[in-house]
Design goal:
This protein is α/β, with parallel strands linked by helices and 327 residues long. Helices cover 36% and strands 14% of the residues. It is globular and about 50 Å long.
Length: 327
């Protein structure tokens, strides 16, 4: 049985960088999208800002694990390697220390030397180097609220946006490589209030008990705090099983018998077949999208000009030969 060459795949030559705060975030936010683009020929790089050292063991089956007690950082590195392989993605550790999840002011209660307390310009340097060496056409990260208010997620937003800007300017840190202009930046919106409120209502309409009752008030508060624009919907249901296997690779963080995995994941499979993103920056030169409309895109690479000067059609996904020559 013959397999198609990588050059014949529809996204060959295109590159996506997904920037996340901790190991396991890449498998709970945008993971099926990662798997879809990797399978269709794009190079997908996951950048993990911290090692997840401060994470608790959330799987009861591993509470007595000697390795977890002795070397949680090493164990999470092994888990991350398995998850990246499951998604078909490349991976890079950026190298900062997990800030933990304080109950109060993170500026006061996070430890000295952690990611959150690192000056943004300093924290952005290794990401600038990665952007200039990997040369992604598209970058995904979190919005300014972090997707949810974890200090490392908020910091990841700040650092990613600073790195994208700095990477494009020749005068900024020339020792970090040749400048590179990222064409599009998206915010992961897997945790958008719109999505989970709709899933909740659909479950109730079907006479099912919803696992989201306690979360709804927080989601409504977030909806009042920030308007989330679901600009882009990626239909990726066929990669949900792959996404779930990647999440389960983070065995210290996921209890396969309860909690988020059995509740939210199973509900989303039935009631929501896509993953959503919010277009934050667009340097493709195409006409602006209508910000008053939801789901106006179905491809993160729509409008991107590839290295050969051809533009990806808005209607994608299409093969390289179908891209439109610029000029």
């Amino acid at each position: 049985m013959s397999h198609p060459s990588s050059e014949s795949l529809p996204y060959h030559g295109l590159r996506l960088l997904a920037v996340h705060a901790h190991p396991d975030d890449e498998s709970s936010k945008g993971a099926a999208t990662t798997a879809l683009y990797a399978e269709r020929g794009a190079r997908v790089m996951i950048a993990t800002m911290t090692g997840g050292e401060a994470g608790d063991i959330l799987n009861p089956a591993l509470l007595q694990s000697p390795q977890a007690a002795r070397d949680i950082a090493g164990l999470r590195r092994d888990e991350m390697a398995r998850a990246a392989a499951e998604l078909g993605a490349e991976h890079r550790w950026i190298g900062f220390v997990d800030s933990g999840l304080p109950e109060g002011d993170p500026a006061v209660e996070t430890p000295h030397g952690c990611f959150y307390r690192t000056p943004t310009a300093v924290a952005a340097r290794p990401l600038v180097h990665l952007i200039r060496s990997f040369r992604p056409h598209v970058v995904t990260t979190y919005d300014e609220l972090g997707g949810y208010p974890h200090p490392d997620h908020i910091k990841t937003h700040e650092v990613t946006m600073a790195a994208v800007e700095s990477a494009a300017h020749p005068e900024d840190n020339p020792e970090l490589g040749e400048p590179w202009q990222v064409q599009k930046v998206y915010y992961n919106q897997d945790l958008s209030p719109t999505k989970w409120l709709i899933i909740h209502e659909r479950m109730l309409a079907d006479g099912l008990e919803s696992p989201f009752g306690e979360m709804l008030e927080r989601y409504r508060e977030r909806a009042d705090t920030r308007r989330t624009w679901l600009s882009t919907r990626i239909e990726c249901r066929e990669h949900f099983e792959q996404r779930d296997r990647a999440l389960l690779a983070h065995a210290t963080q996921i209890d396969p018998e309860g909690g988020f995995f059995t509740g939210a994941r199973e509900a989303s499979k039935k009631y929501w077949t896509s993953e959503e993103f919010e277009l934050a920056l667009d340097f493709t030169g195409r006409d602006p999208l209508d910000g008053a409309q939801e789901f106006v895109e179905s491809d993160l690479f729509a409008g991107v000009i590839d290295d050969s000067g051809r533009r990806v059609p808005d209607t994608g996904p299409l093969g390289p030969g179908a891209r439109e020559d610029e000029g």
